[in-house]
Amino acid sequence: MRKSVYMGICLLCLLVFQGVAWMLFHAQGDRGLACKPSPTALITPALRFERTGDSVRLIGRVASRDLVLLFEDAARGSLPAFQLSNELELDPSVSTPAYLRGMHTMVGLLTQTAPEGTILLEGQRVVLSGQVPDAITKHELEAKARGRLPRGLELTVLLVVSAAGSRQLAQQAKAEIESTRLNFRFGSTRLTQEALYQVEPLVELAKSDSVNGLRIVGYTDSKGPALFNKRLSMKRSRAVAKMLGKLGVKGKLEVDGKGERNPASDNRTRAGRAKNRRVQFQVIEGG
What we know:
Layout: H1 2-35, E1 46-52, E2 55-62, H2 65-78, E3 83-90, H3 98-102, E4 116-122, E5 125-132, H4 135-148, E6 154-161, H5 163-178, E7 181-183, H6 193-206, E8 213-218, H7 226-246, E9 252-257, H8 270-276, E10 278-283
Parallel strand pairs: 2-3, 5-6, 8-9
Antiparallel strand pairs: 1-2, 1-4, 4-5, 7-10, 8-10
């Protein structure tokens, strides 16, 4: 009897001990899980390359010193005449995606912006903004930016032609248009072969934003009656206006015919008369 009671007590103590041990084990496990630090999410990198006049600033945060030096070396190599301010900061919490190193090729684009320009990396989007001297530079710069854009990024271009550049472009277009002369075959409204080669560049100039319209003035040589030449010169100007309209020139097109007046060359020679069979252009100012 005593032996059975003793064994029962021992069995009860064993069960209590196992229960306490199980509770302590799981309590220690919970504390271990609670104390284990959770992984911290890395910050998406943000960079800003900024030009103002002859100064360039590199702004942002990167994870390593070699990235700071990479962007600085790229700026010094492509912008040697500029005053450089490297304001990049080290931050281990910033991620280093594969495209980040490729951003160093974009710094040199700032050479063609003037007087200011910015290249901004936000997430997976690059924004190229600033001023350029003319429309040609704008198109060239956008093409270069797309060619240098690291894989995996999107490009937004917000370039504008500066006021000074717009005025200069308008003056150049006006000068080129008004110096153009399209010559005709004798007694005809058909252009010579040489004149046909001049049409395409003329159309491109006439389509520019700075050109509001054209006044087209026709002329003839001195051969034939004056009234006939007057009518022929008008037909020539109308034929050119019709051709420009078909080729996409949207501005106002005015026509006039001066006949044999105001010769460009000597009507006494064959070569001179060929030069006088022509149309000339005047850019219409204002809106």
